[in-house]
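Sequence in, structure out. Go.
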Amino acid sequence: MENTTFAYMIGLIATICAIIFGYAAFRRNQKRDNENEGSLKSDIGYIKAGIDDLKKQQDKSDERYINLVCKVAEVETSTKQAHKRLDEHIAEGRG
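Output:
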């Protein structure tokens, strides 16, 4: 009888230890998960900031492109007027 009581006690102690160690491992992994989650949030923040910078650069590039198109249109108009004046000048016999 003494052997069976001893075996039950060892089984009970082993079960309690397994529960305690299982809970400790669960808590440890939960802390690691929180650290990983923080790291991922930080990385996502950096990605968002990079995207915002790219959008600003694209907006500036769009502005420069529009200004360039306007200047080219002005040059084309000026060139047409200059050709018209040259043609008139040549037609009057001055050229």
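Check: The chain has a mean pLDDT of 87. The two ends are 133 Å apart (CA to CA).
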